[in-house]
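Give me C-alpha cells for this 415-residue protein.
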Amino acid sequence: MSGQLRADSPGHFPSEWPDRLSGLRVALVHDWLTGRRGGEKCLEILCEAFPDAKLFTLLHQPGSAGPTIEQLDIRTSPLQRIPGIHRRYRSLLPLMPAAARAWKVRDVDLVVSFSHCVAKAVRVPADVPHVCYCFTPMRYAWEGRQAYLDSWSHKPVRRALAGWTLDRLQSWDRQTADRVSHFIAISETVKRRIQHSYGRESQVLQPPVDTVFYRPAPVERESFYLVVSALVPYKRIDQAILACQAANRRLIVIGEGPDRARLQALAGPGTQFLGWQSDEAIRDHLQRCRALLFPGVEDFGIVPMEALGCGAPVIALNDGGVAETVDNSVGRLYEQPTSDGLQAAIESWESEGCPNNPLVGRSRAEAFSCASFRARLLNSLADILKQPLDCATLPVGGAHRPPWQPRTVRSKNPR
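Here you go.
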C-alpha cells in the first residue's frame, strides 16, 4: 500500500567469500571494549567472519560488547589492571600511547584496526598489511581540540597543560599513521580529516545499519523528542535540552556518560533521562518519537540511520557525516550550531506539518545494511591483499612482496 512501511526480510550473508581471504591468520585491534556502540557493531562483522582472530584492545569490560565479540581471544593492555578503569578510562588519554606499545602482534597475515583513538598505532610484523577502518583521527587532538581546551578557560594553568599534552598527542598520532598500509574512512567527512591530519588517501565505506532490527512498527508517533547518545560534551546534548525547554517540548534522553550530572542540572521537568537502555528499548523509542534530535558534529551518525530505519524523522545540524545521509525529505537540517538554531528548526518543522517521507528514510537506511557492509568490507580487504605493499607505509624493515600472499594456509574459511 502506498505510504505503508515494510521491514525488510531477515538478512543473510553470502555463502562464498573472496578466495584470497581463505585461511588467513587475522589480528583485530579496537581502542577499548566497554559497550556495544557504533564502533563495536563494525568490529563484530569481522569477529563473525574470523572467529579465530586475536583481538587486541586497551581494556575490556567483560560482557559489555556482545557475544560475537566476547567469543574471541581478547588481549588487553596494562591499563586493564588499574582498579576502576572502566569508569574513568577517558581521563587516562595521555597514557594510552604507552599502553598500546604492550600489544604484541605476531604470526598473522592481516591486521585490521578499528580506530578513533590509538588502535591504528599497533605495531605489526614488517611484511603484513595493516588496514585501518578509521572512525576519525584522534578526536581531542584534532577537530575536538579547541572545544576541549575551551572547557578549561576558567583554569588557565590546567588549560596550558592540556594544550601541551594535546600537542604531543597530535604529533604522536600523525607519526603512527605511517604504521597503516591502507586507510578506510567511514564517511567523506572522515576521508577529508584523514587527508588533513595524516596526508593520506583513503577509500570510503560507510558503517553498517541493522535494518533487520531497526524497523518500523504499526504504532502512532507521540509528542516527545528523543536523543540517543553518549553523554559527553562534544555531542552537544545541552543544546537539545535548552532547545526543547525554550520551545516547551518534552525530551527523552537515552544514554550515559561523564556529562550526565551537568546535563541533569541544566534540565527542567520536561526532560527525562533514562540512562543506558537495551537495543529493544531504543528501537521502541525510535518507533514512537516525534523526531530524533542530533545537534552534534558526527563522523558518520549511525543513530540517525537507525532512526530512519524505524521511519523516524531526524532533525540534525547540517555538518559532519550526518549531513551526507539526512536531508529535508526525512526531517530537517539546520545551519546554526546553537540551541537557538535547533529550537528554530523544531518550530519551523512543526509549523510546516512535520514533513517526513518514511519510505525514503527506510530506503536510505537499507542502503547501509549489515549484509551490504560485510560484503563490501571483505571485498575491500581482498582487493587490498592483491596489491603490493608500499614500503613507505610500513614499519622499518618492511618488505615489498608483490603480490601479497599468506605465508600459511589453514583449512578453516571465514564464516
